[in-house]
């Protein structure tokens, strides 16, 4: 059995390798020089402009206001991941401006295999400076680098493009552009932008722009990967216990995955809050939340509780129920769980102030999300009752209050 498992791992390694995302520097974090002027995409190696257009590069390391993050030439926007992103002009309007198109291009880490299906994702955000929104943005794949000496549209048909009647007008949130295609050639390059001329570009005046009559997009978190690549969700590990006064620490989390990003909340008591498996030594019982972005920049969250005992030589029921939680959809403390690794069976009930039961669970992995009959409960204080049997068959009853806030 062990030999078969090793063979399976080797086959997975051969099939997928250590690289999942085939896009180099996918969130523009790596740079040769911190940007100090606009038109410096080439600093985000290996990205560059394939035309005479001048796409911009922004990074929080910059001391020049036009290139900073989050405030820069295009407006105000936090990076979706890390501290950097780029931008490109996708459309211009008016007699004072030529029909400018800008593109971002890079060579992929590996050549795409003909006949294989690939998934593509990237995130864009209409800049505050833009007065127009469009819906013609796509990603074009080619075997050789595309090139043009002017700044007009490249006349190629992107394999992946935004296909919706809704204009890309969001100036606050990052919008995901996604699609898939089957490679028909040995593609080596990706180029992103608007490949249509003015007559085939639909535009919508959205106003608010302070600069040019244009449509310019920030871009971040670009991924190209085999659609059958394995994906792992966040795994914070099992609840554990340490002892006060004994300099105890425990390792939480799981083995790191290549090209994954990790961060923990809260960071208090952790040896490193940006790795997959830090050591935890909190001063009080603490629930840690592992936030994980995979190679395609999708985020998942998991939690683990480290119990802190005052006296490890004294038997304890080792049960922790928070007295406050906030089911507001921010993925932090959204679910109320009974925390313990010493419960054999349980019956956990929650009642509102009128004595009406709003939740019941007999599964320690099933918590309350703050709803009752598919409706969100109002903020307030609720009463819980826990009847449990510990692993040593000792019965225990707990009663208390929990405050719901949003």
What is the topology, as strand order, of the major beta sheet?
Answer: 1-4-13-6-10
Any idea what the CATH architecture of the largest domain is?
Sandwich
Q: Based on DSSP secondary structure assignment, what is the total number of beta strands?
A: 26
Give the overall average pLDDT: 90
User: Can you identify the CATH superfamily of the largest domain?
Assistant: Galactose-binding domain-like
Cα separation of the termini: 50 Å
- Helix/strand class: mainly beta
Helix content: under 10%
Number of discrete domains: 3
Oligomeric state as shown: single chain
What is the tally of helical segments?
1
Annotation keywords:
35% strand, 3 domains, mainly beta, 406 residues, five-stranded mixed sheet, Immunoglobulin-like
Overview of the structural elements:
The chain has 406 residues and is mainly β. The chain has three domains: 211 residues, Galactose-binding domain-like (Jelly Rolls, Sandwich), CATH 2.60.120; 84 residues, Immunoglobulins (Immunoglobulin-like), CATH 2.60.40; 90 residues, Immunoglobulin-like (Sandwich). The strands form eight sheets. Strands 1-4-13-6-10 form a five-stranded antiparallel β-sheet, with no helix packed on it. Strands 20-26-25-21-22 form a five-stranded mixed β-sheet, with no helix packed on it. The chain starts with a helix and ends with a strand. The N terminus is likely disordered.
